[in-house]
Write a structure and sequence with these properties.
Layout: E1 4-15, E2 18-30, E3 35-40, H1 46-53, E4 61-66, E5 69-70, H2 76-84, E6 86-90, H3 101-111, H4 116-129, H5 145-156, E7 163-167, H6 175-192, E8 195-200, H7 203-209, E9 212-217, E10 220-226, H8 227-232, H9 237-247, H10 254-263, E11 268-274, H11 282-290, E12 294-305, E13 308-318, H12 321-333, E14 336-342
Parallel strand pairs: 3-8, 3-9, 6-7, 7-8
Antiparallel strand pairs: 1-2, 1-4, 4-5, 9-10, 11-13, 11-14, 12-13
The protein binds adenosine-5'-triphosphate (ATP) and magnesium ion.
Residues 46-47, 167 line the site of magnesium ion.
């Protein structure tokens, strides 16, 4: 039994032009300790879906089961206890500006009636966990975006939840800060054994910390699986676009490559596509050891995921042309795609 199960879940809203099926027949299973990513374009229904998971929204039909309990059936103290077990962080942090960092973190504990000294002690521990030691007396306005989100994370963890929901939690942050916040989330997942459900429109966020992913389009989950599988074999058009956007070289290398061929007309230039192979660059060094040739790296964009590499590497082979062809055949046999751009 998965920690979170959705069975034929629908959530509709009455709109001006008729009913909006924000979530439309979703089946989903999220296991304990998963870092489960949900990706999709704006309006796909991602936020509505996560709001069903903490009972902020009630489904129109179908079942939302968390820890084997039907969320729709929870009431009174059972609902309050349940909500404590599900923390949430947001794109714009949702901090109270008139309260210090420590007071923000203590808010859920205050609401739960926890004594002051206990609250303060917990806030200290959480500040340390999120890397904000000594900043408890600062006000949110004195912090950077990344630090604000750390406060949001600490506050979400105040009641020791089992599940953390993240709604576009890094979308307001620059790439470097995003990376740091994602690392923090990954370490919390490991350290506390917390299950994370993360929604985003950025595939690089999924690649960096999720083990599983679901792709949402028009209220439906159109594709799901392990991050590794979905990156290697995206099935749906929308998934292919998301994966491609993330793995494509960030700058256009064609001018660089044309220049390279002009300066080095004798070698063989080829682009290696690492899709199936999780060893990554070792294939190149193996080829150099096996054949009396040289391989130099010209241009590359290898992206790492948890335990795999994806992306492309453009290399130049120099040496005897028959040996080069054999080396290319060897690399292809390692499940690496080889696209020859120029033969010297
Ligand atoms: N309370 C509401 N009342 C009416 N329509 C709503 C409500 N909440 C969401 N919707 C509609 O449901 C659909 C899904 O919205 P949702 O916010 O879940 O999408 P999203 O994937 O989170 O998008 P974004 O990436 O922009 O945050 C949209 O068409 C939206 O307008
Ligand atoms: Mg949203």
């Amino acid at each position: 039994m998965a920690l979170i199960e959705l069975k034929q879940v629908e959530k509709s809203f009455a709109g001006k032009k008729g009913t909006i099926h924000a979530v439309n027949g979703v089946n989903l299973a999220i296991e304990a300790k998963d870092v489960y990513g949900i990706v999709g374009y704006s309006g796909a229904g991602k936020s509505t879906l996560v709001r069903l998971l903490n009972g902020l929204e009630a489904s129109t039909s179908g079942q939302v089961l968390v820890n084997n309990e039907d969320v729709a059936k929870l009431q009174g103290s059972a609902l309050r206890t349940f909500r404590k077990k599900v923390g949430m962080i947001f794109q714009h942090f949702n901090l109270l500006w008139s309260r210090t960092v420590s007071e923000n973190i203590q808010l859920p504990l205050e609401l739960a009636g926890v004594a002051k000294d206990k609250r303060q002690q917990k806030a200290q521990e959480l500040l340390s966990l999120v890397g904000l030691d000594g900043r408890g007396d600062a006000y949110p306005s004195q912090l950077s975006g990344g630090q604000k989100q750390r406060v949001g994370i600490a506050r979400a963890l105040a009641n020791d939840p089992d599940i953390l929901l993240c709604d576009e939690a890094t979308s307001a942050l620059d790439p470097q800060t995003t990376e740091e916040v994602l690392e923090l989330l990954a370490s919390i997942n490991q350290k506390l054994g917390l299950t994370i459900v993360l929604i985003t429109h950025e595939m690089n966020v999924i690649r960096k910390i999720c083990n599983k992913v679901a792709v949402m389009e028009l209220g439906k989950i159109v594709e799901e699986g392990s991050v590794r599988e979905v990156f290697r074999h995206p099935q749906q058009e929308v998934t292919k676009i998301f994966v491609q956007q993330d793995l494509e070289p960030k700058a256009d290398p064609s001018a660089l490559l044309a220049e390279f061929i002009k300066e080095n007309p004798t070698g063989t230039l080829a682009t290696l596509h690492f899709l199936e192979n999780n060893a990554g660059e070792p294939v190149v060094s193996q080829a150099i050891r096996k054949f009396p040739i040289d391989i130099s790296i010209v241009y590359g964009n290898i992206e790492r995921s948890t335990g795999s590499s994806f992306g492309t590497l453009t290399v130049q082979f120099t040496g005897d042309s028959a040996e080069i062809e054999q080396a290319i055949a060897f690399i292809e046999a390692q499940q690496v795609g080889v696209e020859v751009l120029h033969r010297g």
